[in-house]
Amino acid sequence: MSITCESEAKVFGAWHKQFRHQSQSLNCSMRFAIFLPQKATSSDKVPVLYWLSGLTCSDENFMQKAGAFAVANELGIAIVAPDTSPRGEGVADDDGYDLGQGAGFYLNATQAPWQAHYQMYDYVVNELPQLIEANFPVSSVKSIAGHSMGGHGALTIAINNQNQYRSVSAFSPIANPSNCPWGVKAFSHYLGDDKALWAKYDAAELLASAPMALPMLVDQGDADSFLEEQLKPKALVEAAQVHGAKLQLRMQPGYDHSYYFISTFIGEHLRFHHRYLSA
Amino acid sequence: MSITCESEAKVFGAWHKQFRHQSQSLNCSMRFAIFLPQKATSSDKVPVLYWLSGLTCSDENFMQKAGAFAVANELGIAIVAPDTSPRGEGVADDDGYDLGQGAGFYLNATQAPWQAHYQMYDYVVNELPQLIEANFPVSSVKSIAGHSMGGHGALTIAINNQNQYRSVSAFSPIANPSNCPWGVKAFSHYLGDDKALWAKYDAAELLASAPMALPMLVDQGDADSFLEEQLKPKALVEAAQVHGAKLQLRMQPGYDHSYYFISTFIGEHLRFHHRYLSA
């Protein structure tokens, strides 16, 4: 479980750092980023918000563009951003931006050639938190959030692991991937034809099939060009009603799919998580 | 003076937009970005802060990474970010990151092959403000700021045009380019051997040679890897004393050359400029 620091930068009196490690789940070298607020010390461990990014992203997009650090530092929340897939020359890939490297969809692949490395679900749920809690002044109290493909990842991981997280939030999540082009393409390649397996990675299907106890906050811009074809927040709202899940979906007028949208509301998401992380 | 919108995104209730136009000064097609706060309407024109970026940057780096929009919107300040050089297939270039496209140094080149397009000083001082004031709900009240090469640009342009700007600020500026490798390389190529011409584009030399009436705020990280060899803030402080210029240089402990540093203090820079823009 050794990690190597690749960069560090002071920000708002706190620290942003990037580390590399050999992932057991993914069977390749991986980089992640961590924001450590000033409150984080060996005697005062802070909770962690895991952030899952969208298609084509790495650990850097959120950290460079979201503008989250002033509020995260004020609230004393660490933020960990993994990469969005396994990486490297020996890792299967595809010419499309929506399959292969940069497009891991936070699932455990079962199909060749993907299954050898594409185990992002295990990486995010198990390996990465163990690594973080062993190496940094953080507690095991955590929440999870993400954007687009990462919003899908955050919602499905939280619903499937309700004892591990306190809360979940998403920007523009792929809410019903079994019924949109991005999801159908990815799930067909990574998981094959078994639709029962797909359901474990579909937030709308999960909410329709069993109770979800954690609070969920979702922001969706109504000027998002992916809204109708790919994201389908209505399916999430309808599914949440089946078992009375605590979903707050906010349609944000005029906002698109970009980090300009995320930067506008990330402070509110951090305060939402803080209520549960500090409870 | 026609401009074409290439993107727009709502952010903090306001707007970030990118436009393309044919530049007369630069003799090529150029893109710039503008942040328009909610206060900007045809009946309520707002002042403008011009932001000049550093080596390798475009109009996008500051807009995506600085986290400036919440405070700029609160204060009612528009922000305009030009590109850092002329661009395009017909524009002279160099393999180095510190010469040619992405490295215009905000000067008017006199030497071949650069002089045909590299007239960034005229572009920033004259053409761009005319274009902005003709096309957007902004007043002619303006200040200027920048980072690294753009900090050099902001300081020299403000000192040379004290009637046009209200205030100037810089992060990690190249303060004495005639005496550092980046500056000597660029000035030699763009301006030739005439050191008298170099002096017009050297903030430290300008401050030593004549009074500067505008308030200047400079932030410099003491963990900046370019500090000793390239940036030379001490030369700026010493030069400012010659004619009693109003320079506040803040050495910021632990900060590096990155946008993490800029994002930490950009709010203070905006409030600094607001005092003079609203006076």
TrEMBL record, chains A, B:
<dbReference type="InterPro" id="IPR029058">
    <property type="entry name" value="AB_hydrolase_fold"/>
</dbReference>
<dbReference type="GO" id="GO:0052689">
    <property type="term" value="F:carboxylic ester hydrolase activity"/>
</dbReference>
<comment type="similarity">
    <text>Belongs to the esterase D family.</text>
</comment>
<dbReference type="InterPro" id="IPR014186">
    <property type="entry name" value="S-formylglutathione_hydrol"/>
</dbReference>
<dbReference type="GO" id="GO:0005829">
    <property type="term" value="C:cytosol"/>
</dbReference>
<dbReference type="Pfam" id="PF00756">
    <property type="entry name" value="Esterase"/>
</dbReference>
<dbReference type="GO" id="GO:0018738">
    <property type="term" value="F:S-formylglutathione hydrolase activity"/>
</dbReference>
<keyword id="KW-0378">Hydrolase</keyword>
<feature type="active site" description="Charge relay system">
    <location>
        <position position="224"/>
    </location>
</feature>
<feature type="active site" description="Charge relay system">
    <location>
        <position position="257"/>
    </location>
</feature>
<dbReference type="GO" id="GO:0046294">
    <property type="term" value="P:formaldehyde catabolic process"/>
</dbReference>
<feature type="active site" description="Charge relay system">
    <location>
        <position position="148"/>
    </location>
</feature>
<protein>
    <recommendedName>
        <fullName>S-formylglutathione hydrolase</fullName>
        <ecNumber>3.1.2.12</ecNumber>
    </recommendedName>
</protein>
<dbReference type="InterPro" id="IPR000801">
    <property type="entry name" value="Esterase-like"/>
</dbReference>
<comment type="function">
    <text>Serine hydrolase involved in the detoxification of formaldehyde.</text>
</comment>
<keyword id="KW-0719">Serine esterase</keyword>
